[in-house]
Write a structure and sequence with these properties.
With 282 residues, this protein is an alpha+beta fold. The protein has 2 domains: 6-74, Phosphorylase Kinase, domain 1, CATH 3.30.200.20; 81-265, Transferase(Phosphotransferase), domain 1, CATH 1.10.510.10. It has helices at residues 31-48, 81-87, 93-109, 148-155, 163-166, 180-196, 207-215, 225-230, 235-244, 255-265, and strands at residues 6-13, 16-23, 59-63, 70-74, 112-113, 122-124, 130-132, 139-140. The strands form 3 sheets. The chain has a 4-stranded antiparallel beta sheet, covered by helices on one side. A two-stranded antiparallel sheet has the order 5-8. A two-stranded antiparallel sheet has the order 6-7. It is globular, with a radius of gyration of 18 Å.
C-alpha cells in the first residue's frame, strides 16, 4: 500500500508475516515535511509500543536495517475494513463496529485520543476481528493543540473531522485540539462508511464544500429504509450516529455508551446489501 508519506510492505519476522511501514526519507520530502514526518514517526512509536489490546493492531518495534525508518506491526490479511467489506459484503457490520468501539474505549480509558478515526485506519484479521491502526497523530488528551491545516495536509481527514477541529472558535479555542469528543464524531462518520461503503459527504467533490456543509450543521441522511435494514442499520443505530455527530461536542455520548448501544443491536447475523457500495441518492 502507498500513502503520501509512507509505504506498507508485507514482510517475514520469525515464523510469521508482519507489516512494514516505511516512512519517506528526507530526500523525498521538503524540510518542513521531513520534520513533521519525523515527529509523527517517533510519536507513533512511543505511544504504540505501550498499547496492548485485541482491537489495537499489535506493534512489534522499529527497524532501521532495510530502510531508514520502519514501523513493524501485525500483518492484517484482509486489509482495511473498507477493503474487507468490498470482498465480503455480507459481513456483520455491527460486530466490526463493536470491535472499533472496544479499541477506542481502551484508548480513551488511558486518556489517549486517536485523532484519526476512519475506515482507512481500521484493519481486519483473518478471524474477522477489527483493530485500530495509525497512531501518528494520537495524543494524550492533555497535550497541546495542533493546527488543522498541518494535520489535514498529511492525513486527509477533513471528511471525518469534528466541527470544533475545523473551527476551534466554536468551543472558545484559538487552535484546534483533539479530544475524545472529536474521536466520537469521527467514529460516527466511520460508521457511515461501514454501513454504506461510501465516504462521508460522498457527493462533495472537494474539502471546501465539506467544511461548508459541516459548519452549516449538515450531516449524512438516512438511506431508504429497506436499504438501511439490508446492512443492519436500524433506527436505534441511526439515532446513535446522530448523537455522535452532534454539532455540540458536550452533547456527544462517551465511548462506553456508544458500545452499550452497539452491543444491544448486535444480532450476530449476516446482512445482504442489494449493492456494495450502496447506491444512494446524491
Amino acid at each position: 500500500a502507498f500513502g503520501g508519506s509512507s509505504r506498507v510492505f508485507r514482510g517475514q519476522y520469525d515464523t510469521g508475516q508482519v507489516a512494514v511501514k516505511v516512512i519517506a526519507t528526507a530526500r523525498e520530502l521538503s524540510c518542513q515535511e521531513s520534520k513533521t514526518k519525523l515527529k509523527r514517526f517517533y510519536g507513533e512509536a512511543i505511544i504504540w509500543r505501550h498499547l496492548r489490546h485485541p482491537n489495537i493492531t499489535a506493534f512489534y518495534g522499529v527497524d532501521t536495517s532495510l530502510f531508514a525508518l520502519c514501523l513493524i506491526s501485525e500483518w492484517m490479511p484482509l486489509g482495511t475494513i473498507a477493503q474487507t467489506l468490498s470482498r465480503k459484503p455480507d459481513m456483520n457490520r455491527i460486530k466490526l463496529l463493536v470491535d472499533i468501539a472496544n479499541g477506542l474505549g481502551y484508548l480513551h480509558a488511558l486518556d489517549i485520543v486517536h485523532a484519526d478515526v476512519k475506515s482507512a485506519n481500521v484493519l481486519v484479521n483473518d478471524q474477522h476481528i477489527a483493530s485500530l491502526i495509525d497512531f501518528g497523530i494520537a495524543t494524550l488528551s492533555t497535550d497541546a493543540a495542533v493546527t488543522f491545516t498541518s494535520m489535514t495536509s498529511t492525513t486527509g481527514t477533513t471528511r471525518w473531522a469534528a466541527p470544533e477541529i475545523l473551527d476551534p472558535e466554536l468551543v472558545g479555542r484559538k487552535e484546534s485540539k483533539f479530544t475524545s469528543e472529536c474521536d466520537i464524531y469521527s467514529l460516527s462518520m466511520t460508521m457511515w462508511e461501514v454501513f454504506t461503503g461510501l465516504p462521508p459527504f460522498h457527493h462533495c467533490n472537494n474539502d471546501g464544500t465539506v467544511i461548508h456543509k459541516v459548519m452549516s450543521q449538515k450531516r449524512p441522511t438516512f438511506p431508504p429504509r429497506s436499504v438501511a435494514l439490508s446492512v443492519g442499520l436500524t433506527d436505534t443505530i441511526w439515532a446513535l450516529m446522530e448523537n455522535c455527530w452532534d454539532h455540540n461536542p458536550s452533547r456527544r455520548p462517551v465511548i462506553n455508551d456508544v458500545l452499550s448501544v452497539l452491543l444491544s443491536e448486535d444480532s450476530q447475523s449476516e446482512v445482504h446489501p442489494p449493492t456494495w457500495p450502496l447506491e444512494l441518492p446524491s
